[in-house]
Amino acid sequence: MVVIRLARGGAKKRPFYHLVVTDKHSRRDSGYIERVGYFNPSARGAEIPLSIKMERVTHWQSMGAQPSHRVALLLSKYETEGEKPAAEQVKPIKKKAGAKAKAAEAEAKGAEAKGAEAKGAKAKDKDVEAKGTETKGAKAKAKDAEAKAAVTQEEAKAAKPAKEAAAADENKAQAESAQEPQAKTEENKEKDSE
Predict the structure, then answer these.
(1) What was the pLDDT predicted at 185?
(2) Which residues contact 68 (CB under 8 A, 6 or more apart)?
């Protein structure tokens, strides 16, 4: 069976694909029957990202060639847009470092929001009690937020004494190791004097 698919070319991390007509059972980048176009996903400026010989593609489709899923998408894109330089096509710019920074900021804001949520729940609880119109669901949410805030405060308190205890144990071990040589030297002095 004959298929129309992409064969990868280009350098490492800079892909370039040829649209080729080939046998279904042949390897991805091996020999092909005919090259009918190319796709350059990393095209910049005046470079043309997609070029297809449509008359040859229709010829091979009439002969029974089946396009792969990705090639079918590229064909429909080419039919609507045609050959345009990359500068004319609008592409969303992805910023990897910016996305990581935004994720870290969002996480920090989330942690602050949890603390503020617990405080806000307490204040809301007091306001609602004064009005006397609180529902059971709101009470449950307020209690959950209070419990979470209490747990985080307890964890912080528990972590502090544990650190202090570890430091005290370390200091004690150092003091004992420093005293052992002194004790031995005193014993040696007593033996020498006898």
Answers:
(1) 61
(2) 3, 4, 5, 6
